[in-house]
Fold this sequence. Notes:
Number of helices of chain A: 5
Number of strands of chain B: 0
Number of domains of chain A: 1
Number of strands of chain A: 5
Order of helices and strands of chain A: EHEHEHEHEH
Shape of chain B: elongated
Distance between the termini of chain A: 26 Å
Oligomer: heterodimer
CATH architecture of chain A: 3-Layer(aba) Sandwich
CATH architecture of chain B: Up-down Bundle
Helix content of chain A: 40-55%
Largest interface: A-B, 17 and 23 residues
CATH class of chain B: Mainly Alpha
CATH topology of chain B: Four Helix Bundle (Hemerythrin (Met), subunit A)
Number of domains of chain B: 1
Helix content of chain B: over 70%
Strand content of chain A: 15-25%
Radius of gyration of chain B: 15 Å
Shape of chain A: globular
Number of helices of chain B: 4
Amino acid sequence: MDNALKILLVEDEPDIQAIARIALETVGGFTVDIASCGQEGLEKASSFAPDLILMDFMMPGMDGPTTFKALRQRPDTRHIPVTFMTAKVQPQEVAYLRSLGALGVIPKPFDPMTLASIVQSIWEENRDPRRLSGAAGRSA
Amino acid sequence: MTHDAFLAQLAEVRKMFEAQLPQRIAALQAACEGALAAPDDRAASAAAGQLAHKLAGSSGTFGFPEVGRVAKSLELLFASFSPARPEQIQTLLTTIQTASKLS
């Protein structure tokens, strides 16, 4: 699977890590690495060089938005698209994530049976140059 | 991997979540009671709200949508300053206990 999409999941909850990994690897055929906090997410964004980052919003220490901003400040990670996975899906919360430049927002709870197809859809939309200008505002 | 093997893996992680659910609800209950006992302590409210948020985000994925819905209500209550908050929180804590026994 050399050409498999590489996804970095930044998520502190072990049970969500486990079920998301199963869904993304088994159903989606993606190559997945996991970071358990924002700081580890920054490190693995550099070393793993993912095509896409799935980021939790609320994490101990460095939260999702703070991690996102730090990724954007680093030359080697600033280009990596980030989609948030969060239970914070009030309109103002989604608008805030969009304003940061998030590629999409996947609501929690998510269905493990459809997670991979949602991620694939977000990825394909990102790759379509006709939609690049609106990609930052996409919601899943 | 076959579809059946995939479903078996999902069932396994769901079982692990279910086994841990009583402890997570007990921790949420303790955090809520701590916040209610110290209504001016914003850190206590924030801690309870964060536990509710985490449960709201995960329970539905593991087959406990009602627990997730009640946890979301608790999270929103801890983000608000409703005068009816203590009674509502107690009611929701009772509801979440019941919901955790149903999947």
